[in-house]
Each structure stands twice: as C-alpha cells, then as structure tokens.
C-alpha cells in the first residue's frame, strides 16, 4: 500500500503487438458480476467524504498555484521566455483540470459520497466550471454505462458498420486524412458531442442536444435538471464575460480557454482509447448483454498521468463493472478481479500516441464475426 493509501498494482507483463490486439473472448463469461464483487475487498465499495474531498482540494490547490505563478511571474519574464512558459502552463493546468473533471464525473456516478445531494452539488459546481452540463451529461453517460458495447444503444464512440461509411471515407483513410480527423476529434469532438450528439447513438423524435431539456436523450423526470445544468453553464459564461471585460479577452483565453481545450482533448482521447481497440467486440441486440458489454473496454497506461487523472485511465474495466466505486479503491479492485477475468480483461500498455494512431488506422468500421457463427458479434476492420 502506498503512502496515499492506494494499492499498487504490478504492471502487467509486456505483451507483443500480436498479443495486444488479439481478440478477447466474446462468449458469455464463465463468471458473474456477483462473483467478481465477492473477490473485491468490501472496503473498496466504501465512499469517504474526507478522502474524496482531499483529492478535489489537492487538485484545486495545484491549479491555483499554477494560476498564481502565471499571473504573478509570467509578466516579469523576458519576452522570449514567455513562449516556453505559456505552453508549459497550458499543459500542466490542462492535466490538473482534467483530474478535476474526473472527480466531477465520479459525482455523476454517485461515487464521491453516500449522499446524492452532495455528489450532485459538487459535480454541478465543478463540471459547470469546465463548461460541462452536469445533469445532462450525467444522464446520457449513465445510458452509456447501461449499454456499453451495444451497436444500437450505446452512446459513446459507437462504431459504424461498413455499409454506413460515407463515400469520402476511403479518401480519409491515409496519413493526412487520419491527421485531420484526429485533430478535429480532439479539438471539436467534445463540444460537438454535447451540442449535436456526435459519435453517439441516433435518437428518434427530436434534436439530441445535451443543452435541450426536451431532447430525446432525457425522460420527463430528468428535464427540470437539464435546466439547472444550463443555468450552471450560463453562470460560468457570465463570470468569464465579466473577467474578460476587466482583464481582457486575451487573458481569459490564456488562463482559462487554452487549458480548457487541453481538458476537452484529454477527455476525448481517454474515452476514445478506452472504447476503441482492435481486440474489442461490439454486439447487436441478438448477442448483447450487460456483462459482455461492460467488459468491452480496455485499460491503458498514461504513465505519471494515471495518477493525475485519478486512475480513470488504467482502471476503466473495473469502473464499468462497478461505477459507484470511488477511484481511490479502483486499483485494488482491479488487482482483485484480474485473476477471475482472465482473458476477458484487456490491458494495453502501448504508448498513447502510438496507440491513438494505430486505432485511427485499424478501427475504421465493424463487421460481423467471420471466424465463428456469432453473426451478432462485430469486430473492427479497416479494409475499404
């Protein structure tokens, strides 16, 4: 156990590239969710208010220190040095604020405390600060967790079938095209997801927008809280307007806007790599079930950023199985369930940039299983 109380998980043995992209089993697992839960120490499911707040407060302190250094000392730097100082600030502040985003995400899963009102209050404040409509995202993200791996009902990076690839797809399947697509995905992907449900499932009956209370994403009981989410976003936007009026637009962009772009980029990158991998199956309604869908995700290694991102990167399989578990117990839980999961557990330690490029190249669309008789199981392919 580390000084911070986290169980240290031994790094998986290094796999060859062939082993890394080897397909995971798609048959019904020989274990149940109950058996997995029994393997996890009971304390891993306990949520601690002091401990949860300690991670949030630590992130706020670090982010505040970065802001103080930038506002106090950057103006004193000789002109050439500012070209190095600002990118360093943007990168560091963006990483820390991504950690804040993750904690607010935990609030949406009711993993922050035993009190739903406290989780929603903390989540609303800090997701709104990062221009995320808290309740809107909370409910759409819950549907993702309920339908992971389903081609019809999942809401996050739902792959296309070959027949749905647009005519221009083959012209983008080259290094230049992939570079353009990845650039757009990591800069505009998150706002487009919120505003137009890009990469999500299609909905009948209206405009699927996270800011629209009457969007088909939500049911009647949830609509009032969508207004509250919108009010939170408007309040932060007004605060940014007032800041820009006093300090200038350039100051607002440098201190807040660019780090927010980094947060949005990391959010899309992390989610993309968690749910896009040559070894992972997707299912149509004839084969899908919740457990197989929850296992259709992969843990990744972001190095030191695993800690900065509160291990959402390298414990995502456990998170999908037990989403109300606090992040500070997820590593211990992962270690406990790996022997039971066996080949159903997927970890890929490929460097993130290399993995991002490989997935963009190899995971273009999905097609039915050709190696077996399961026509409702789909695997990635890239032959256009």
UniProtKB/TrEMBL annotation:
The residues the entry assigns to the signal sequence are none
A GO CC annotation given for this chain: membrane
Which InterPro entries does the record match to this protein? FA_desaturase_dom, Fatty_acid_desaturase
Q: Where in the cell is it found?
A: Membrane
Task: Report residue spans for region: Disordered.
Answer: 1-20
Keyword set, alphabetical order:
Lipid metabolism, Membrane, Oxidoreductase, Transmembrane, Transmembrane helix
What is the originating organism of this protein?
Answer: Brassica juncea
By what name is this protein known?
Answer: Fatty acid desaturase 2
Q: Which family does it belong to?
A: Belongs to the fatty acid desaturase type 1 family.
- Location, primary (coarse class): membrane
Sequence ranges assigned to domain Fatty acid desaturase in this UniProt record = 85-346
